[in-house]
């Protein structure tokens, strides 16, 4: 149960790219929330999550994503989820979060 987070701010296009590798669960969700909190202090912009190396997401992780959405929606920003694996995409669809987040699986 580990989570690696690589973050980069794209100044040209004004968005955060956050690549997640591993699992977001009850044990790692606070790590992601801490990184996102630090990002918000620096610059609230659109966030593009790259889920290509994310293997697991539970309800605690979904809670962090919803918390993130609430934070950035106040400033008219968006969350884009890219490259979600089938199991994570299925979870987003079951919870109807694929209708709230921009899901780009191409």
CATH topology: Transcription Regulator spoIIAA
Q: Mind telling me which CATH architecture this is?
A: 2-Layer Sandwich
- Please state the CA-atom Rg, rounded to the nearest Å: 13 Å
Query: How much β-strand is present in the residues?
Result: 25-35%
Query: Structural class of the helix and strand makeup?
Result: alpha/beta
Q: Secondary-structure map with pairings?
A:
Elements: E1 3-10, E2 15-24, H1 29-42, E3 46-57, H2 59-73, E4 79-82, H3 86-94, E5 102-104
Parallel strand pairs: 2-3, 3-4, 4-5
Antiparallel strand pairs: 1-2
Helix pairs in contact: 1-2
Give a verbal description of the structure:
This protein is 36% helix and 35% strand. It has 106 residues and is of the alpha/beta class. The chain has one domain: 2-Layer Sandwich (Transcription Regulator spoIIAA). A five-stranded mixed β-sheet has the order 1-2-3-4-5. The radius of gyration is 13 Å and the shape is globular. The termini are far apart. The relative contact order is 0.17.
Task: Briefly characterize the structure.
The chain is an alpha/beta fold. The chain has 3 helices and 5 strands.
Any descriptors?
single chain, 106 residues, alpha/beta, Transcription Regulator spoIIAA, 5-stranded mixed sheet, globular
